[in-house]
Amino acid sequence: MSAQQWIHCNLCNAQMANKDTKFYHLSCLDVLCRTCMGKTNRGTTCPVCNNSLRHFTELGSSMSRKEKMLYHSFPVGLYQMSYQTLLFQHKQRKRLVESILKTRESLKRLDELESEIKNQVAQTQRKYENLRNHRRSLQENMRQTVSSGGGERNIGDDFAAKDVHAYSVGLSAERELSPT
Ligand SMILES: [Zn+2]
Ligand SMILES: [Zn+2]
């Protein structure tokens, strides 16, 4: 087992990495160096917490699986991995939420644009209807004027000329507005 920086004697603070000696894991979850093991009253009492000891094991391959887990570097690696995973997934989630919000916003704008266009189409349609009615009444006026003819010719000519002008204006406006 490779000595990790944090492993130290809980009594004299000697670090396992710096000291060429054996270390022991105690059943009370304290750690002692070989020297301080001499203060356990023949392995019965922990000098750190004063609890009686059920057992102690030399740090290394003779430890139980459960004890080894406590010294494994795995939890640190797992934590770092979890942290990176968490950051990555958080970023991904944030990105997703942002794009959903953006899409929702542009959908709202599209809806507004659509109703605006509908309004404009309706307005244009009304203008077109008005012009068509105007043209019809002008045509009717012209027809009546032409068919009446006779003595009031000058007045009728003036009236007709004016109406023809208005009629052509109406026609060109209608042509602009006509959907075909
Ligand atoms: Zn010690
Ligand atoms: Zn102890």
From TrEMBL:
GO terms for cellular component: synaptonemal complex. The keyword tRNA-binding does not apply. The keyword Zinc applies. InterPro entries: Zip3/RNF212-like, Znf_RING, Znf_RING/FYVE/PHD. Signal peptide: none annotated. Residues 137-157 are annotated as: Disordered. GO terms for biological process: homologous chromosome pairing at meiosis; protein sumoylation; reciprocal meiotic recombination. Keywords: Meiosis, Metal-binding, Zinc, Zinc-finger. Residues 9-50 form the RING-type domain. Pfam families: zf-RING_5. One of its GO terms (molecular function) is zinc ion binding. PANTHER family: RING FINGER PROTEIN NARYA-RELATED. This is RING-type domain-containing protein. It comes from Anopheles quadriannulatus (Mosquito).
